Amino acid sequence: MRWHVHVDGASSGNPGKSGAGIVVRDDRGEVLFTRGIYLGEMTNNMAEYEALVRALTSAAQHSVKDITVYTDSQLVANQVTGVYKIKNMTLFAYVRRVKEIVSNFEHFTIQYIPREQNREADKLAKDAILKG
Fold it and tell me: Residues 26-54: pLDDT tens digits?
């Protein structure tokens, strides 16, 4: 089974109340599930990583072996792929956790997309803040 996952993190203030949005689709583009998660107080970058980690953890729990992740965070996409160096130890720990989880997959890709292509995950993340 292959998942196509849109993730987004949002923070009201930086740091501030934060949320994660996750939208999971199959190969036909059918929505398998969506999730908005209130994360508490953290920075925007931490919220972006929380969304990614939670989506990957869910995929591993569902025995998914092939996953493509779409994010509108250039920082997350480029740190995970090794294009950007990671100076912040908190973000370094997130990347280490991501790499641990993706080692369970046969195929993993993370791709930067423009914000307009990530509206659904963005709305879930922002709505989660309001509900938190």
Answer: 999 999 999 999 999 999 999 999 999 99
Mean pLDDT of 59-72: 97
State pTM to two decimals: 0.98
User: Would you put residue 13 in left (φ > 0), alpha (ψ -120 to 50) or beta?
Assistant: left
d(CA 13, CA 39): 13
Peptide bond into 15 cis (omega under 30): yes
Half-sphere exposure of 3 (CA within 13 A, CB side): 27
C-alpha–C-alpha distance, residues 11 and 1, integer Å: 32
Q: What is the largest distance, in Å, between two alpha-carbon atoms of the chain?
A: 39
Output the DSSP codes for the chain.
Answer: -EEEEEEEEEEEETTEEEEEEEEEE-TT--EEEEEEEEEEEE-HHHHHHHHHHHHHHHHHHTT--EEEEEES-HHHHHHHTTSS----HHHHHHHHHHHHHHTT-SEEEEEE--GGGGHHHHHHHHHHHHH-
